[in-house]
Amino acid sequence: MENTLLVALSRQMSLERQIDIISNNVANVNTTGFKADKSLFEEYLTSGAHEDNFGGKDRRVSFVQDRGTFHDFAQGPTEQTKNPLDVAIDGRAFFAVQTAGGERYSRDGSFQINSQGQLVTTGGDVVLGNNGPIVFQTTDRDINIAKDGTITVREGVVTQTDSIRGKLRLVRFDAPQKLQKDGRNFFSAPAGTSAIADTTSSVNQGYIEKSNVNSVTEMSRMIEVMRTYQNVAALMQQQSDLRKNSIQSLADVPA
User: Fold this and answer.
1) How confident is the model over 145-187, as pLDDT tens digits?
2) How far apart are CA 112 and CA 12, in angstroms?
3) Residue 214 pLDDT more than 80?
4) Domains identified in the chain, total number
5) pLDDT band (50, 70, 90) for residue 240
């Protein structure tokens, strides 16, 4: 009976953490370039309650253990904005961004130009090119971002030739699952994980990559998890009532 309660408790704990992950996915369904998280579960086997004087071996009890989470790096759908500073990546690459906490990586290509003429994210962090920050002049016009990330402009009003302002630094990772979410839709690379220049991915100007969260699927999972949690709670209550009734019956000794 105690094993039943312990198994049910392990299941409730894993369901509680799973609902947290699903809730975060749903909250970011409209976050540009957001990558969903998924849960990993495994079976944990141990022997049941036992005493030294038991004649034979106990059957092993199967508990639920949520081993961790993993990032779903599937590419999200793209949306055309016609904004020349919006860029969507086609491939596995990430944009490199310089933040106050160091270099970070993102799939959010909704960019702006700050007062210093630098290309920045919506949060004001500097977008990095192959040679550092990408800086525009006040007279630049007709910004064009090529498939390989090269940024060209027309200078002034009279000039008819293109001037290069930089090239977006696109990077990839051999083990992207080691990346850690670092807030504001960024990923950080832990020690021992290095960014590698990505030459196979391309970019599309005037588009953004939307979140890869499927809202219908996530809401269905949330309902399923909540119902499962309620069923496990009902099972635990039934076991508790059964134990209480057993104790009361054993205590009811005839006079």
Assistant:
1) 999 999 999 987 776 778 999 999 999 999 999 999 998 899 9
2) 45
3) yes
4) 2
5) confident
* Pair (55, 84) in one structural domain: no
The pTM score is: 0.84
Q: Do 26 and 118 share a domain, yes or no? A: no
